[in-house]
Protein backbone atom coordinates (compact mmCIF):
# COMPACT_ATOMS: atom_id res chain seq x y z
CA UNK A 1 0.00 0.00 0.00
CA UNK A 2 2.82 2.37 0.92
CA UNK A 3 4.64 1.47 -2.30
CA UNK A 4 1.54 2.32 -4.38
CA UNK A 5 1.26 5.72 -2.69
CA UNK A 6 4.93 6.42 -3.43
CA UNK A 7 4.46 5.41 -7.03
CA UNK A 8 1.36 7.61 -7.36
CA UNK A 9 3.19 10.56 -5.81
CA UNK A 10 6.10 10.13 -8.21
CA UNK A 11 3.71 10.04 -11.18
CA UNK A 12 2.00 13.25 -10.02
CA UNK A 13 5.36 15.01 -9.52
CA UNK A 14 6.59 13.83 -12.91
CA UNK A 15 3.40 15.12 -14.52
CA UNK A 16 3.76 18.48 -12.88
CA UNK A 17 7.38 18.74 -13.97
CA UNK A 18 6.41 17.85 -17.54
CA UNK A 19 3.70 20.54 -17.56
CA UNK A 20 6.20 23.06 -16.21
CA UNK A 21 8.72 22.18 -18.93
CA UNK A 22 6.10 22.46 -21.65
CA UNK A 23 4.81 25.78 -20.26
CA UNK A 24 8.32 27.18 -20.05
CA UNK A 25 9.13 26.04 -23.57
CA UNK A 26 5.95 27.64 -24.84
CA UNK A 27 6.83 30.95 -23.19
CA UNK A 28 10.41 31.04 -24.38
CA UNK A 29 9.45 30.16 -27.95
CA UNK A 30 7.42 33.36 -28.24
CA UNK A 31 9.39 36.43 -29.38
CA UNK A 32 8.47 39.77 -27.87
CA UNK A 33 8.08 42.55 -30.42
CA UNK A 34 10.05 45.67 -29.49
CA UNK A 35 7.88 48.62 -28.56
CA UNK A 36 7.30 51.13 -31.36
CA UNK A 37 8.28 54.62 -30.26
CA UNK A 38 7.98 58.03 -31.91
CA UNK A 39 8.65 61.59 -30.77
CA UNK A 40 6.91 64.73 -32.01
CA UNK A 41 8.50 68.14 -31.68
CA UNK A 42 6.32 71.24 -31.63
CA UNK A 43 6.16 74.90 -30.66
CA UNK A 44 3.31 75.81 -28.31
CA UNK A 45 1.31 77.74 -30.89
CA UNK A 46 -2.40 76.95 -31.08
CA UNK A 47 -2.16 75.36 -34.52
CA UNK A 48 0.85 73.25 -33.53
CA UNK A 49 -0.79 72.11 -30.29
CA UNK A 50 -3.84 71.00 -32.28
CA UNK A 51 -2.11 69.03 -35.03
CA UNK A 52 0.46 67.54 -32.64
CA UNK A 53 -2.19 66.16 -30.29
CA UNK A 54 -4.19 64.74 -33.19
CA UNK A 55 -1.11 62.99 -34.56
CA UNK A 56 -0.24 61.71 -31.09
CA UNK A 57 -3.56 59.88 -30.97
CA UNK A 58 -3.18 58.67 -34.55
CA UNK A 59 0.19 57.12 -33.77
CA UNK A 60 -1.16 55.61 -30.56
CA UNK A 61 -3.89 53.94 -32.63
CA UNK A 62 -1.09 52.56 -34.81
CA UNK A 63 0.52 51.02 -31.72
CA UNK A 64 3.20 53.57 -30.90
CA UNK A 65 4.38 55.01 -27.61
CA UNK A 66 4.43 58.74 -28.32
CA UNK A 67 6.59 61.39 -26.68
CA UNK A 68 5.77 65.08 -27.15
CA UNK A 69 8.64 67.57 -27.05
CA UNK A 70 7.66 71.25 -26.69
CA UNK A 71 10.41 73.70 -27.70
CA UNK A 72 10.86 77.07 -29.39
CA UNK A 73 11.13 77.22 -33.18
CA UNK A 74 14.93 77.46 -33.37
CA UNK A 75 15.60 74.54 -31.02
CA UNK A 76 12.94 72.51 -32.86
CA UNK A 77 14.80 72.78 -36.16
CA UNK A 78 18.07 72.05 -34.37
CA UNK A 79 16.54 68.95 -32.75
CA UNK A 80 15.28 67.67 -36.10
CA UNK A 81 18.66 68.27 -37.70
CA UNK A 82 20.40 66.45 -34.85
CA UNK A 83 17.92 63.57 -34.89
CA UNK A 84 16.75 64.27 -31.34
CA UNK A 85 13.06 64.30 -32.35
CA UNK A 86 11.45 62.26 -35.11
CA UNK A 87 9.14 64.78 -36.74
CA UNK A 88 7.03 67.92 -36.53
CA UNK A 89 3.76 68.72 -38.29
CA UNK A 90 3.89 72.52 -38.23
CA UNK A 91 6.79 73.94 -40.19
CA UNK A 92 5.66 77.13 -41.93
CA UNK A 93 7.32 77.44 -45.32
CA UNK A 94 8.56 79.09 -47.44
CA UNK A 95 8.35 82.42 -45.56
CA UNK A 96 7.83 82.24 -41.79
CA UNK A 97 10.56 79.68 -41.10
CA UNK A 98 12.75 80.65 -44.03
CA UNK A 99 15.72 81.49 -41.81
CA UNK A 100 15.55 78.19 -39.95
CA UNK A 101 15.20 76.23 -43.19
CA UNK A 102 18.20 78.03 -44.69
CA UNK A 103 20.24 77.02 -41.63
CA UNK A 104 19.07 73.44 -41.07
CA UNK A 105 17.18 72.36 -44.18
CA UNK A 106 19.95 70.25 -45.68
CA UNK A 107 19.89 68.10 -42.53
CA UNK A 108 16.10 67.64 -42.35
CA UNK A 109 13.70 65.56 -44.47
CA UNK A 110 10.89 67.59 -46.09
CA UNK A 111 8.08 65.04 -45.98
CA UNK A 112 4.85 66.63 -47.18
CA UNK A 113 2.62 69.71 -47.10
CA UNK A 114 -0.22 68.75 -44.74
CA UNK A 115 -2.06 72.04 -45.39
CA UNK A 116 -1.12 73.53 -48.75
CA UNK A 117 -1.22 77.21 -49.66
CA UNK A 118 -3.75 78.25 -47.02
CA UNK A 119 -1.59 79.59 -44.20
CA UNK A 120 -0.73 83.25 -43.75
CA UNK A 121 1.06 85.61 -41.37
CA UNK A 122 0.96 89.39 -40.94
CA UNK A 123 -0.17 92.29 -38.81
CA UNK A 124 -3.77 91.93 -37.66
CA UNK A 125 -6.23 94.50 -36.28
CA UNK A 126 -9.90 94.44 -35.28
CA UNK A 127 -12.14 95.24 -38.23
CA UNK A 128 -13.34 98.47 -36.55
CA UNK A 129 -9.83 99.94 -36.96
CA UNK A 130 -10.13 102.42 -39.84
CA UNK A 131 -6.80 101.81 -41.57
CA UNK A 132 -6.14 98.99 -43.99
CA UNK A 133 -2.40 98.97 -44.66
CA UNK A 134 0.85 98.77 -42.75
CA UNK A 135 2.07 101.96 -44.36
CA UNK A 136 -0.78 103.84 -42.65
CA UNK A 137 0.28 102.83 -39.13
CA UNK A 138 2.49 105.84 -38.41
CA UNK A 139 -0.38 108.23 -39.12
CA UNK A 140 -2.37 106.75 -36.21
CA UNK A 141 0.47 105.48 -34.00
CA UNK A 142 -0.91 107.24 -30.92
CA UNK A 143 -4.13 105.23 -31.13
CA UNK A 144 -2.03 102.04 -30.79
CA UNK A 145 0.22 103.54 -28.09
CA UNK A 146 3.07 102.95 -30.57
CA UNK A 147 2.98 99.20 -29.78
CA UNK A 148 2.70 96.03 -31.83
CA UNK A 149 1.77 93.08 -29.61
CA UNK A 150 3.80 90.03 -30.59
CA UNK A 151 4.60 86.50 -29.51
CA UNK A 152 7.84 84.67 -28.65
CA UNK A 153 11.15 86.32 -29.57
CA UNK A 154 12.28 83.25 -31.53
CA UNK A 155 9.19 82.98 -33.74
CA UNK A 156 9.48 83.53 -37.48
CA UNK A 157 6.70 86.11 -37.39
CA UNK A 158 8.67 88.05 -34.78
CA UNK A 159 11.70 88.43 -37.04
CA UNK A 160 9.42 89.37 -39.95
CA UNK A 161 7.80 92.05 -37.79
CA UNK A 162 11.18 93.45 -36.81
CA UNK A 163 11.93 93.61 -40.52
CA UNK A 164 8.58 95.33 -41.18
CA UNK A 165 9.35 98.00 -38.56
CA UNK A 166 12.58 98.75 -40.44
CA UNK A 167 11.14 98.50 -43.96
CA UNK A 168 8.17 100.76 -43.22
CA UNK A 169 10.13 102.97 -40.79
CA UNK A 170 7.41 102.42 -38.20
CA UNK A 171 7.36 104.49 -35.03
CA UNK A 172 6.36 101.39 -33.07
CA UNK A 173 7.87 99.05 -30.51
CA UNK A 174 7.37 95.31 -30.86
CA UNK A 175 6.24 93.89 -27.50
CA UNK A 176 7.19 90.20 -27.43
CA UNK A 177 5.10 87.88 -25.30
CA UNK A 178 3.59 84.49 -26.15
CA UNK A 179 0.74 83.20 -28.27
CA UNK A 180 -1.50 83.12 -25.21
CA UNK A 181 -0.32 86.54 -24.05
CA UNK A 182 -1.00 88.08 -27.44
CA UNK A 183 -4.50 86.57 -27.54
CA UNK A 184 -5.25 87.86 -24.03
CA UNK A 185 -4.20 91.40 -25.01
CA UNK A 186 -6.34 91.19 -28.15
CA UNK A 187 -9.36 90.00 -26.17
CA UNK A 188 -8.99 92.79 -23.63
CA UNK A 189 -8.62 95.51 -26.27
CA UNK A 190 -11.62 94.34 -28.27
CA UNK A 191 -13.68 94.14 -25.08
CA UNK A 192 -12.92 97.82 -24.46
CA UNK A 193 -13.22 98.87 -28.09
CA UNK A 194 -9.54 99.94 -28.15
CA UNK A 195 -7.24 99.92 -31.13
CA UNK A 196 -4.64 97.15 -31.14
CA UNK A 197 -2.30 95.62 -33.72
CA UNK A 198 -0.92 92.13 -33.18
CA UNK A 199 1.27 89.65 -34.98
CA UNK A 200 -1.29 87.20 -36.34
CA UNK A 201 -1.49 84.07 -38.43
CA UNK A 202 -4.01 81.79 -40.04
CA UNK A 203 -5.04 79.18 -39.07
CA UNK A 204 -5.84 80.56 -35.60
CA UNK A 205 -9.00 80.37 -33.51
CA UNK A 206 -9.05 84.16 -33.00
CA UNK A 207 -10.41 84.62 -36.53
CA UNK A 208 -13.44 82.55 -35.55
CA UNK A 209 -14.01 84.42 -32.31
CA UNK A 210 -13.39 88.03 -33.40
CA UNK A 211 -13.99 90.17 -36.47
CA UNK A 212 -10.42 90.78 -37.61
CA UNK A 213 -8.50 91.80 -40.71
CA UNK A 214 -4.94 91.66 -41.96
CA UNK A 215 -3.29 94.96 -42.76
CA UNK A 216 -2.15 95.05 -46.37
CA UNK A 217 1.58 94.59 -46.83
CA UNK A 218 2.59 96.47 -50.01
CA UNK A 219 6.30 95.79 -49.45
CA UNK A 220 5.68 92.05 -49.13
CA UNK A 221 7.61 91.68 -45.88
CA UNK A 222 5.36 88.87 -44.63
CA UNK A 223 5.35 86.97 -47.93
CA UNK A 224 2.34 85.32 -49.47
CA UNK A 225 0.34 82.17 -48.92
CA UNK A 226 2.26 79.48 -47.08
CA UNK A 227 2.27 75.73 -46.65
CA UNK A 228 2.16 73.98 -43.29
CA UNK A 229 4.69 71.21 -43.70
CA UNK A 230 5.58 67.93 -42.03
CA UNK A 231 9.34 67.59 -41.47
CA UNK A 232 11.18 64.51 -40.23
CA UNK A 233 14.67 63.68 -39.08
CA UNK A 234 16.93 62.23 -41.73
CA UNK A 235 16.85 58.43 -41.43
CA UNK A 236 13.28 58.03 -40.17
CA UNK A 237 12.15 56.74 -43.57
CA UNK A 238 14.57 53.81 -43.43
CA UNK A 239 14.45 53.31 -39.66
CA UNK A 240 10.65 53.19 -39.50
CA UNK A 241 8.88 52.96 -42.89
CA UNK A 242 5.52 52.52 -41.14
CA UNK A 243 5.84 55.83 -39.28
CA UNK A 244 7.09 57.60 -42.38
CA UNK A 245 4.16 56.24 -44.35
CA UNK A 246 1.73 57.74 -41.83
CA UNK A 247 3.46 61.11 -42.14
CA UNK A 248 3.45 61.00 -45.94
CA UNK A 249 -0.33 60.40 -45.96
CA UNK A 250 -1.16 63.00 -43.31
CA UNK A 251 -2.96 65.98 -44.80
CA UNK A 252 -6.06 67.84 -43.74
CA UNK A 253 -7.81 71.19 -44.19
CA UNK A 254 -8.00 74.59 -42.57
CA UNK A 255 -11.50 73.65 -41.39
CA UNK A 256 -10.12 70.51 -39.70
CA UNK A 257 -7.36 72.21 -37.75
CA UNK A 258 -9.56 75.20 -36.92
CA UNK A 259 -12.21 72.94 -35.41
CA UNK A 260 -9.64 71.47 -33.01
CA UNK A 261 -8.27 74.91 -32.13
CA UNK A 262 -11.76 76.27 -31.50
CA UNK A 263 -12.56 73.34 -29.20
CA UNK A 264 -9.43 73.99 -27.15
CA UNK A 265 -10.05 77.74 -27.06
CA UNK A 266 -13.59 76.96 -25.88
CA UNK A 267 -12.29 75.17 -22.80
CA UNK A 268 -11.85 71.57 -23.95
CA UNK A 269 -8.55 69.92 -23.04
CA UNK A 270 -6.00 69.38 -25.80
CA UNK A 271 -6.42 65.62 -25.45
CA UNK A 272 -10.22 65.70 -25.56
CA UNK A 273 -10.30 68.12 -28.49
CA UNK A 274 -7.96 65.92 -30.49
CA UNK A 275 -9.94 62.80 -29.57
CA UNK A 276 -13.19 64.43 -30.67
CA UNK A 277 -11.71 65.12 -34.10
CA UNK A 278 -10.15 61.65 -34.40
CA UNK A 279 -13.42 59.97 -33.38
CA UNK A 280 -15.38 62.08 -35.88
CA UNK A 281 -13.04 61.22 -38.78
CA UNK A 282 -12.37 57.47 -38.61
CA UNK A 283 -11.97 56.99 -42.37
CA UNK A 284 -9.36 59.74 -42.62
CA UNK A 285 -7.45 58.36 -39.64
CA UNK A 286 -7.57 54.84 -41.10
CA UNK A 287 -6.16 56.16 -44.36
CA UNK A 288 -3.31 57.92 -42.57
CA UNK A 289 -2.47 54.79 -40.60
CA UNK A 290 -2.72 52.68 -43.74
CA UNK A 291 -5.56 50.40 -42.71
CA UNK A 292 -8.27 51.93 -44.95
Work out the helicity level: 40-55%
CATH superfamily of the largest domain: Periplasmic binding protein-like II
Given the C-alpha coordinates, what overall shape results? globular
SSE series: HEHEHEHEEHEHEHEEHHHHH
Distance between the termini: 69 Å
Q: Tell me what the CATH architecture of the largest domain is.
A: 3-Layer(aba) Sandwich
Q: How many discrete domains?
A: 2
What's the gyration radius in Å?
27 Å
CATH class of the largest domain: Alpha Beta
Structural class: alpha/beta
Q: Helical segment tally?
A: 12
Mean pLDDT: 90
Q: What characterizes the major β-sheet? A: 5 strands, antiparallel
Which fold name corresponds to the CATH topology of the largest domain? D-Maltodextrin-Binding Protein, domain 2
Task: Report on the architecture of this protein.
With 292 residues, the protein is an alpha/beta fold. The chain folds into 2 domains: 36-118 and 225-289, D-Maltodextrin-Binding Protein, domain 2; 124-214, Glycine betaine-binding periplasmic protein, domain 2 (D-Maltodextrin-Binding Protein, domain 2, 3-Layer(aba) Sandwich), CATH 3.40.190.100. The protein contains 12 helices and 9 strands. The protein has helices at residues 2-29, 46-61, 73-82, 98-104, 156-167, 179-192, 206-209, 236-239, 241-249, 254-265, 270-280, 282-289; strands at residues 36-42, 64-70, 87-93, 108-126, 147-149, 173-175, 198-202, 212-214, 226-233. Strands 3, 4, 7, 8 and 9 form a 5-stranded antiparallel beta sheet that branches. The chain has a two-stranded parallel sheet with strand order 1-2. Strands 5-6 form a two-stranded parallel ribbon. Strand 1, helix 2 and strand 2 form a beta-alpha-beta unit. The longest helix has 28 residues, at 2-29. The model is unreliable at 1-31 (pLDDT under 50).
Amino acid sequence: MIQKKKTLTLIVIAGLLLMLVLFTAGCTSQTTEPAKEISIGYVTWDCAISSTNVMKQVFEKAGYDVTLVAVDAGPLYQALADGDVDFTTTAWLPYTHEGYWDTYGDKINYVHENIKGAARIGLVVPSYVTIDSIDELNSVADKFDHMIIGIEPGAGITSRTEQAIDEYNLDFNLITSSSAGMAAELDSAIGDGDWIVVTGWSPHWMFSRYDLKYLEDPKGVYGGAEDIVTLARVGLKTDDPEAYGILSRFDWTMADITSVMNAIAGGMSETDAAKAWVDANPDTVAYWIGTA
